[in-house]
Design brief:
about 90 residues; mainly alpha; about 0% strand
Length: about 90
């Protein structure tokens, strides 16, 4: 995305905003959905880690779909009596 935003010279915040809007409007919905799914899994892993390092937990879920990883993390959060804020 960054590569596309800065294809032209950006001189001020308004031009940056417009460039971001242009790039976002051309994004495919499946790319956006995949990004949201990945973010959801990462946020749950962060909660599960108690706010500490969590990247190592993500390795467990690499071979699973985001939906499966999301469900596994939900079960772990329930065991900890923590509900995700989304």
């Amino acid at each position: 995305m960054q590569q596309h935003v800065y294809q032209t010279n950006i001189r001020n915040v308004d031009e940056l905003r417009q460039s971001l809007l242009n790039v976002c409007s051309r994004m495919k919905q499946d790319v956006i959905d995949a990004s949201i799914d990945q973010c959801r899994v990462r946020l749950k892993a962060r909660v599960r880690s108690g706010g500490g390092h969590f990247e190592h937990m993500l390795l467990i879920y690499l071979h699973k779909s985001y939906e499966q990883a999301d469900n596994i993390l939900d079960r772990h959060l329930l065991k900890l009596n923590v509900t995700a804020p989304y």
